[in-house]
């Protein structure tokens, strides 16, 4: 646009006056859609704080679009497709957000996007929706995620278990996109690796009693629970411990939260192992850790780094797009996230603004790792192992 205006200067006198006037600051608002209530309610606040941290840094370093303020507003999707439809409608059609960080649960993302995101031409960047079903969603290139799919997490969990000499497992999964997709990837990889899946049982969320399901899982003493820390996952783990039928407990990313141990004697699940998306060691991850520590946040909170990346990427895309309009944002997002370009790290907003203003390509390297989106809006990533030690989850390391 600047090149065009400079060309017109010699021909149109009025353009000279327009160019002399100071640029008008434009404000922009992004939304956050997440389960502040429901089965991941203990996990959601730190994820939101990760996104807020990115917004705060943008504003502290000059703001967006010629000095305008970037705002973030949230809505409760309750980890539920129906609730998220109403929440996304409010964010998009009442609050008028440019784009969304979220949802968190996959059903939440799909429900909110299909009902309001697609009709509104709104980009969604989820930091936590891991179900493989998101890959095949018909989304007009509007849905992205900054965390790897469970197609990867399931494979890595299988490799981890087999590497520990665990040759048989019993699996129970919450009966939704997340649970079913995760279980399918795990079971396939585990059996292909030579392991035996002694039982594979779906369960419905929000029940008070899962003893019947547990009775169908006792063919193996190694119990894998793919569910949520604030809901069925916690209840199943507690009742499994009470039954005394299992010796090894394994959980997916939805189980990684302090709420999981409510009503459970921590010593009874000492050594429980789990998986979730992680971040590679390096300058980008360390910068984010330092920024989060300085802000008093838990840098290692589940999916908080990925939420920071989602919000920072959206800010970069808005700046690249040159306006607070939704049109063109998806293309701009791909441009700022992918090579080639000068590397931008977490917190480097002022540097990024300057490069974008100069017309220089940038490539954001995130707190959660590389963010080169594929055609489906997915990324590669790493999966880490965690274990309960002394009553809380502790990171063990990357699963190779």
TrEMBL record:
One of the protein's GO biological processes: amino acid transport
Keyword entries, A-Z: Amino-acid transport, Signal, Transport
Keyword Kinase: no
Keyword 4Fe-4S: no
Origin: domain of life: Bacteria
InterPro entries: BCAA_transport, Leu-bd, Leu_Ile_Val-bd, Peripla_BP_I
Signal peptide (residue range): 1-25
Leucine-binding protein domain mapped to chain residues: 29-337
Gene3D superfamilies named among the record's database cross-references: 3.40.50.2300
Family: Belongs to the leucine-binding protein family.
Stated name of the protein: Branched-chain amino acid ABC transporter substrate-binding protein
Species of provenance: Devosia pacifica
């Amino acid at each position: 646009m600047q090149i065009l205006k400079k060309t017109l200067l010699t021909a149109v006198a009025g353009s000279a006056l327009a160019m002399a006037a100071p640029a008008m600051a434009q404000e922009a608002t992004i939304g956050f859609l997440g389960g502040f209530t429901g089965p991941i309610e203990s996990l959601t606040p730190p994820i939101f704080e990760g996104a807020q941290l990115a917004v705060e840094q943008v504003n502290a370093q000059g703001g967006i679009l010629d000095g305008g303020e970037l705002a973030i507003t949230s809505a409760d999707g309750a980890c539920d497709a129906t609730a998220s439809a109403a929440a996304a409608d409010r964010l998009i059609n009442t609050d008028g957000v440019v784009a969304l960080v979220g949802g968190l649960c996959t059903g939440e993302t799909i429900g909110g996007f299909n009902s309001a995101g697609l009709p509104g031409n709104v980009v969604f960047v989820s930091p936590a929706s891991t179900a493989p079903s998101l890959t095949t969603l018909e989304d007009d290139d509007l849905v992205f995620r900054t965390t790897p799919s469970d197609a990867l997490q399931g494979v890595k969990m299988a490799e981890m278990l087999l590497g520990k000499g665990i040759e048989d497992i019993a699996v129970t999964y919450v009966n939704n996109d997340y649970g079913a997709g995760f279980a399918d990837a795990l079971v396939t990889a585990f059996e292909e690796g030579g392991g035996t899946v002694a039982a594979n049982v779906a369960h419905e969320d929000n029940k008070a009693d899962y003893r019947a399901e547990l009775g169908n899982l006792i063919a193996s003493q190694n119990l894998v629970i793919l569910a949520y820390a604030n809901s069925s996952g916690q209840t199943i783990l507690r009742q499994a411990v009470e039954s005394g039928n299992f010796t090894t407990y394994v959980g997916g990313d939805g189980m990684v939260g302090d709420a999981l141990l409510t009503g459970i004697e921590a010593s009874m699940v000492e050594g429980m192992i789990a998986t979730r998306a992680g971040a590679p060691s390096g300058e980008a991850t360390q910068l984010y850790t330092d920024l989060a520590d300085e802000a008093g946040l838990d840098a290692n909170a589940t999916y908080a780094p990925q939420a920071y990346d989602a919000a920072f990427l959206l800010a970069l895309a808005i700046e690249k797009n040159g306006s607070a309009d939704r049109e063109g944002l998806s293309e701009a997002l791909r441009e700022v996230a992918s090579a080639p370009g000068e590397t931008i790290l977490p917190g480097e907003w002022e540097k990024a603004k300057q490069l974008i203003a100069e017309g220089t390509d940038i490539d954001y390297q995130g707190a959660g790792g590389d963010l080169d989106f594929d055609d489906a809006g997915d990324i590669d990533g790493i999966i880490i192992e965690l274990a309960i030690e002394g009553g809380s989850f502790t990171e063990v390391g990357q699963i190779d």
